[in-house]
Design a protein that fits this description.
368 residues; alpha/beta; Aspartate Aminotransferase, domain 2; Aspartate Aminotransferase, domain 1; 2 domains; 4-stranded mixed β-sheet; binds pyridoxal-5'-phosphate
Amino acid sequence: MKISFVDLKAQYQTIKPQIDLAIQQVIEETSFIGGSRVKSFEDSFAKAYGVKHCISTANGTDSLYIVLKMLGIGIGDEVITVANSWISSSEVISQTGAKPVFVDIDPVYYTIDENLLESKITVNTKCIIPVHLYGQMCNMDKISEIAKKFNIPILEDCAQSHFSEYKGIRAGLVGLAGSFSFYPGKNLGAYGDAGCLITNDDNLALKCRMFARHGALKKHEHDIEGINSRLDGIQAAILSVKLPHILEWTKQRNRVADLYSKLLSGIDEIAIPKRRPNTLHSFHLYVIRCDNRNELQEFLLKNGVQTAVHYPIALPNMNAYKYLGYSKNDFPVASNYQDRILSLPIYPELSDDQVVYIAELIKKYYEI
Ligand SMILES: *Cc1c(COP(=O)(O)O)cnc(C)c1O
C-alpha cells in the first residue's frame, strides 16, 4: 500500500463539481482581484467563525505581519514567540524591525511553555505570538493572565488551528487578533497562497484592511503607505466551497487521530500526542515522538508510507538566528524534540484501513 503524507486530490474529488463550477464562474465574471467573491468569503468566514471582522490577505505570513505593523511594532521592540514553529511566526517580527524573543516548548503539549513566558517579558515587549501548533491550542488562560498583567496584546498564530477550541473559545478569539493561512495543505486550504486575519476590534480591523490594500480603503485615497496583500477571486471562490465542510473535516481528522492513538498506545518506545483538557484539537498534524526517528521514517518510506517532520530544526537553532547567539541549551526541550518528532499522514479522507496499515508497520518496526 502506498500512502502519501498529504493527498489534496482525494478531497478535490469529493467536491469536484462545485469547485470546477466556482472557478469557471470567477473566470466568466473576470472578478480576479477583489470583487464579490472575496467579500462574500470574508463575510461567510466571519459568520462561521463567530467574529466581527475577517480581512483576507495573500497568505498567513502577511496576516501576522500586517497585525504587528498596525500595532505599531518596530525597531527597539521585542515580540515573544515559540521556539518550535514554521519560520513565519518569527520572521514577521524581524521584518517590522523588532527582535524575536523565543520561549521553549512545553514537553507534553509541544506548544509555548507558559511557565517560561513571564521571565522573557521586558519593558520592550510589545506583543506575544502564541502558535497553536499541530492544531493544539496553547494554555490561553495562563498566557492571557500574563498578557493582561503586563498589558501586552496577544496575536494568535492559527495557521494550523482552524476552528480549534480552548474552553469553548475558538483559536484567534482569545487574543486581540488571530492569523490564518489557507496554504493548500492547511486544514482549510486554497489552491494557491491565501490567508486572513480576524479580530473583534473595530479600529485594528480598519487599520489592517487599509494597510493590506496599499493604505487605501477607497481607490486612490491612500491615507498611509501599505502593502499589497490580497486574496484573489479564484481562491476566495474555492475557499467558499470548502468552508461549509470544515467542521466535518475536523471531525474526520479527530477520527484518524483517535484510531492512531488507540493502535499506538501500547508501544513504549513511542510518545503519542496528548490533547490538552477542555479543548477541541483540529489535528492539522499527528506527531509522534521516538528516539530513532530517522530510522523509523526510512522504514515507513520503504514500505510506501510518506511522513514528515515539523520541524527538524527549532527556530533559535536556525542559521537565520545565529546572530542572536543562542545555544541548544537555551531551548532544551525544542532542541531535544527536533530530532525525535515524526508527523504521520493525517487528512479527513485517510481511511481506517490506511491508519491500521501504518500502525501495523510501526509495530513491525518495533517487533511487536
Ligand atoms: C503555514 C504557517 C504560516 C504561514 O502561512 P503562509 O500562508 O504559508 O504564509 C504561519 N505560521 C504557521 C505556524 C504555519 O504553519
